[in-house]
Every structure is written in structure tokens, then in C-alpha cells.
């Protein structure tokens, strides 16, 4: 799967079907979410519970598809050398709203256990920079995640 993902990032857009592009973009997004989960080397129960929910709601996948995606993303995330390989594909295919929603999901994961680790914060900020989002957009998404957390 990792070889396919790398091929997708390096190949021109037209060499893949729409379904293949969607699968690769979902994998890139899921891998970025896992980067947040693993930033503090501790996957809390709250993070384990919210990750499938975020993937289901943001990517429109079934529960079975989400479990397979998490497994693939975990392997991809472990074998990646930088965030750039994930953010490059997202920059090429996501619009500004989709990028903001991804950052919002990352913030929600970071706050899921009630504690924001400095490494989670750094990961999200770095990803936001690589996605070419403004600082104000980053803060707006963080504030939305905090509001959501407080309502739960």
C-alpha cells in the first residue's frame, strides 16, 4: 500500500481513476490524523473512539472501510519520512474548506483526551503550514474543536 501511495504522489493526476484518487487522498488524510494520535506516543481510549467517527463523518466512509483505512494509514504513517508526502497530495486535490475540516479533525483528536500535548500542537501547526492555511484559520479550527470538546 505504501508503494501505491508514493506512486500516487509522484505520478501525474490523470494516471489514476477518480476512485483511486479518492482512496489515496483518504489514506493521506487518515495518515495525518494518525500523526496527531501518535505525536505523544500514547493512544488514549478517547482518541481510539473518536478517530473512526471523524473518518466516517469527514470522508463519508462505512465503518468497515474506516477500519481498513486506519490499518493502511497506520502502516503508511509508520513508514513515512515526512508530512510533506501526505500534504502534497492534499494540497493538489483539496479545496480550502476541506483543508480546514482536516485541521479541525486533527484538533478534535488532539483534544479528545482532555489534554493538548505540545507535540500534538506542533504537528497540527506544521501540517497547517504545509497546507498553506493562514494562522487565523488554524486558530479558528482550534477554537471550534475546543467548543466541541466542551459541549461533549
Structural domain count: 1
Please give the number of β-strands: 0
Q: CATH topology, which one?
A: TerB-like
How large is the count of helical segments?
Answer: 8
- The 3D shape can be described as globular
Protein name: TerB family tellurite resistance protein
InterPro entries: DjlA_N, TerB-like
Organism: Shewanella youngdeokensis
Domain Co-chaperone DjlA N-terminal: 27-143
Your description of this structure?
With 152 residues, the protein is mainly α. It has a single domain (2-151), classed as Orthogonal Bundle (TerB-like), CATH 1.10.3680. It has 8 helices and no strands. It has helices at residues 2-10, 18-38, 45-59, 63-79, 84-93, 96-111, 118-130, 135-151. Helix 3 runs antiparallel to helix 6. The longest helix is centred in the N-terminal third of the chain and has 21 residues, at 18-38. It starts with a helix and ends with a helix. The mean pLDDT is 84.
For the structure shown, list the relevant keywords.
152 residues; TerB-like; single chain; 0% strand; DjlA_N; mainly alpha; TerB family tellurite resistance protein
SSE map:
Blueprint: H1 2-10, H2 18-38, H3 45-59, H4 63-79, H5 84-93, H6 96-111, H7 118-130, H8 135-151
Helix pairs in contact: 2-3, 2-4, 2-5, 2-6, 2-7, 3-6, 6-7, 6-8
Domain Co-chaperone DjlA N-terminal: 27-143
Protein name: TerB family tellurite resistance protein
InterPro entries: DjlA_N, TerB-like
Amino acid at each position: 500500500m505504501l508503494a501505491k501511495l508514493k506512486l500516487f504522489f509522484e505520478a501525474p493526476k490523470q494516471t489514476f481513476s477518480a476512485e483511486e484518487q479518492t482512496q489515496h487522498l483518504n489514506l493521506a488524510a487518515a495518515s495525518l490524523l494518525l500523526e496527531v494520535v501518535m505525536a505523544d506516543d500514547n493512544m488514549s481510549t478517547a482518541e481510539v473512539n473518536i478517530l473512526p467517527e471523524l473518518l466516517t463523518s469527514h470522508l463519508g466512509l462505512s465503518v468497515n472501510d474506516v477500519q481498513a483505512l486506519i490499518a493502511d494509514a497506520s502502516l503508511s504513517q509508520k513508514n513515512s519520512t515526512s508530512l510533506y508526502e501526505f500534504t502534497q497530495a492534499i494540497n493538489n486535490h483539496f479545496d480550502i474548506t476541506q483543508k480546514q475540516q482536516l485541521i479541525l479533525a486533527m484538533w478534535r483528536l488532539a483534544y479528545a483526551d482532555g489534554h493538548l500535548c505540545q507535540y500534538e500542537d506542533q504537528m497540527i501547526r506544521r501540517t497547517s503550514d504545509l497546507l498553506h492555511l493562514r494562522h487565523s484559520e488554524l486558530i479558528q479550527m482550534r477554537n471550534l474543536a475546543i467548543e466541541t470538546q466542551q459541549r461533549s
